[in-house]
Amino acid sequence: MMAVLVLMGLLTAVVLPNFERWFSNTERRVSASELAVRLQKLYARAALLGQNFELSATTASEKLADGQPALDLPTGWAFAEGQSLKIRASGLCQAASIQFVSAAQALVLDVTPDNCEIVIRSRTAPPP
Q: What's the pLDDT tens digit per position in 104-128?
């Protein structure tokens, strides 16, 4: 019985840290994907509403013509200061790289000019 308990304790000591790391990495990937989807939806909304918009840290919470905030960021995330993204009512995109930051990570999303595709370029530790 003691051998089984010792074996279970060792197994737990090895598996638990890996599980926590896996869970944390999964949480970060989901946050990055959620940000990319919300930014993609903003392009579609601007085209449907026929509204040009310049997205920045100060304008992200402004409401568009549909009464909804331009970019409703997930809890804990912020649009990095000093950058902006022009969104055209025509549906056309210009190439851009937009950085978002949270307490746990920084994230750069690239916008491709051809089809407004949002590509997650990097996930890094947040700036100090």
A: 788 888 988 877 888 888 666 555 5
pTM of the model: 0.74
Range of the domain at 43: 2-124
Helical (H) or strand (E) element with 107: strand 106-111
**Burial tier of 79 (Cβ tally within 10 Å: 0-12, 13-18, 19+):** buried
Q: What share of the chain is helix, strand, coil (3-state, %, to 5)?
A: 40, 25, 40
Q: How far apart are CA 128 and CA 122, in angstroms?
A: 17
The label of the residue with tokens 């990055």 reads 32
Domain count, the chain: 1
Output the domain CATH number for residue 31. Answer: 3.55.40
Among candidates 97, 125, 121, which has minimal Cα distance to 32?
A: 121
